[in-house]
Amino acid sequence: MEPIARPPDDDPREVVNTNFQRAADRLGLDNEMRLLLTMPFREVRVEIPVRMDGGALRVFVGYRVQHSGVRGPSKGGIRYHPSTDLNEVRALASAMTWKTALVNIPFGGAKGGIAVDPAELTLAELQRLTRGYIRRIHLLLGPYRDIPAPDVNTNAQVMTWIFDEYSAQHGYTPACVTGKPVELGGSEGREAATGRGVFYVTQALLKDLGMALTGARVAVQGFGNLGSFAARFFAEAGAKIIAVSDVSGGVLSERGLDVKALLEHARENRTVKGFPGGQEISNDNLLCLDCDILIPAALQCVITKKNANRVRARVIAEGANLPTTSEADETLAARGIHVLPDILTNAGGVTVSYFEWAQNLQQIFWDEDRVNAEMQKILLRAYRQVADRAAQEKISFRSAAYTIAVDRVARAE
Ligand code: NAD
Question: Reduced to 3 states, what is the DSSP secondary structure of residue 157?
Fold first, then answer.
């Protein structure tokens, strides 16, 4: 077994494996079990040649990692990002195994990605890239094998191409991918599910802490699918969204941003930057704002040893996967900051993906109220288990969450 070195501060795989090893220590797992639970089941790297609109040929690199299939088919999103590499995809696949186990839905973990900046591609190029990727990995996918979903820079349109390409090879198979448009077998409520889940879990913690939601000051890093829906739900519940950002920069208003107007601005300009209802703020400064709730909703490893001492939020609700490095986590705990761990907080997305998959297999359709209510039930059950275990064993929510999840997968294995 590999020695467990202190993690470099920006390696997502070290972050997830450190969390795993700490849970394995608490559970007294032996080295063989640790090996089985850390090594990915299967990983592929593919080269995807794409004829660009201008006639030139470009070759992109894509990955799919199936970390575990012991509790059910592997499940996990597909990310399009220039810095995506095998290490990142492995880390995110492993996080999916612990997340699906924690909320106790019948899946293992997977993740996929292509190293590409989709903003540089036309829609037609993006479609050719997605179809080429699926043609290379479709034999490894399927409703009972591995089911992709959206992640950073992918959406219902990309899921539609995946559905169509997979079905061209295997026959009509809506359950092969989730996050599809409702018109093509997607689930009501899926698009908003991850942001809604962040809201439900945070609301539960605030209640336990006796903290008011009305008037709570919220900062959100990342205004994509997750961040924008989360901001909307918090604002609707009476919280004050004081800052949001995206890859281009951020906006701040101590009086509270008008989220509806901000969504409109982001739709028109493809960024929140320049929103007239606030002043400019950098991503780094947003993370260190004096606020009640900080929601990282962009990329991994953004709260690190460099800024953990300067974070002034009372609660961090991890929307993004693996946003906090292990060393930063210790600093936050020592400073008494409440951290709602990613594998709990952002599990609303995969939970509603589970509902989508189940609806597709049965060819029945739930209404949105049912989807939201069932998702809330699953997330609040997991929240209660985590909160109770943390209190009983005097450990952090993250430690409790990983202990519950790792225990479930180890028993299954
Ligand atoms: P998205 O592509 O819709 O949005 C990502 C947002 O992050 C965009 O606003 C983008 O501009 C911003 N961003 C990217 N790089 C940034 C940087 N360096 N600094 C600041 N902002 C940056 O993606 P999403 O689906 O909302 O996913 C966001 C996070 O949530 C990811 O960590 C993802 O893994 C996680 N997540 C997503 C889902 C889901 O269902 N979509 C589910 C669980 C977890």
Answer: helix
Residue intervals in the chain for CATH 3.40.50.720: 191-345
Which atom of ligand 1 is closest in space to residue 154's alpha carbon?
A: 2
For Cα atoms 200, 283, 95, give the angle at the middle one, nearest 5 degrees.
Answer: 50
Ligand 1 center to 26 CA (angstroms) = 32
**Ligand 1 center to 223 CA (angstroms):** 7
Q: Whose CA is nearest to atom 20 of ligand 1?
A: 247
pLDDT at position 280: 97
Separation of CA 152 and ligand 1 centre (Å): 5
Q: Can you give the pTM of this predicted structure?
A: 0.97
Which atom belonging to ligand 1 lies closest to the Cα atom of 323?
32
Residues involved in catalysis: 111
Tens of pLDDT, residues 316-330: 999 999 999 999 999
> Could you read off the pLDDT of 105-141 as tens digits, one per residue?
999 999 999 999 999 999 999 999 999 999 999 999 9
Could you please state the CATH topology (level 3) that the domain comprising 191-345 is classified under.
Answer: Rossmann fold (3.40.50)
**Region for 310 from its dihedrals, namely left if φ exceeds 0, alpha if ψ lies in -120 to 50, beta otherwise:** alpha
Q: Answer for the pair 113, 81: CB distance below 8 angstroms, yes or no.
A: yes
CATH 3.40.50.10860 in the chain, residues? Answer: 42-175
42-175 topology per CATH = Rossmann fold (3.40.50)
Residue of minimum CA distance from atom 19 in ligand 1: 247
Nearest CA-CA partner of 164 in 155, 173, 154:
173
